[in-house]
Amino acid sequence: MESTGDGGARTVGEVGERGILTEVFGVLAEHGAGADGLLVGPGDDTAHLRVRSGAVLATTDTMVRGQDWLDEWSTGEDVGHKIVTQNLADLASMGGRGTGVLITLLCEPELPLAWCRDLTTGLARACARAGVPVVGGDLSAAGPGVVAVSVTALGELGEGIPAAVLRSGARPGDVLAVSGPLGRSGAGLGQLRAGRRAGRWVDHHRRPWVDLEQGPVAARVGATAMIDVSDGLGRDGARVARASGVDLVLDEAAVAGLAGRLAPEVGEQDALRAVLGGGEEHELLATFPPGRVPAGWVVLGRVEAAQEEPGVRLGEQELDPSGGGWDHFGG
Ligand SMILES: [Mg+2]
Description:
Blueprint: H1 12-31, E1 38-40, E2 48-49, E3 57-64, H2 76-92, E4 96-107, H3 113-130, E5 134-141, E6 147-157, E7 175-178, H4 184-193, H5 200-206, H6 214-220, E8 225-228, H7 233-244, E9 246-250, H8 252-266, H9 268-277, E10 284-288, E11 298-305, E12 312-314, E13 317-318, H10 327-330
Helix pairs in contact: 1-3, 2-3, 4-5, 4-9, 8-9
Magnesium ion (MG) binds at residues 90, 93, 228, 230.
């Protein structure tokens, strides 16, 4: 089979499925992670994975060009990296870790082969960082302008974790905490919109990464509910609140502390908006019985009985799920 080399000018339509797969397998071999549990990897009709615990976690996420990323802001490698983080954070939020990912690319024939290679590099690097193998995938041609990437991640609960942590287990009296700083991705998105193309928050928005091991860590110490912050603290917090039938009450000083890290670069108002409403953060938001919050987590507030409709409050104020419209801080 011919080598496609670095001739970035060619399109996927020109090299065809065999040419694309040659490229993809080459990149996976270069960067990919192996795994003990992988009995049969890519190349056959299906992958075959050993299951340790007898129960499988499964999740999927799709990103669409123009919808979930803009080519002006994000490279193929950024997209590959981000979609792996999204999926693996979903597994982590249940107390699990990945055992394999499957990737589907649906694209116009005019897509440069180089973009496809970059995408695979991003996927493979992110997977290797997490120690999760790419076990299979699919390719399909789509109409003009269309590029969609879909990843399905398989996983299992960390050892010693008896049950997946759900959104519905938060109880009044629990402590609300997050596995790391919030607002970095949101701050970076704001900077991209303002025309900036570099900087640590821009980088974090393009390639968010979190300590995925904190999911199993939280589950092991008895987290009562957990979710990853994919759509913003307000929206994802409200999901936990509704599923659990409680209010999540954010501590104003804790929120101000997180925003304070971002404010010197993006301004106080945007910093606050990024902390409360910024999506694609993927840090884990969890509730714990008092005294059980793992080291390194940031305490954000507490769980109380719902006042009316379950939701998220900042002090005494009900939080707009979007985190926007925050006259309270922004003036
Ligand atoms: Mg999620």
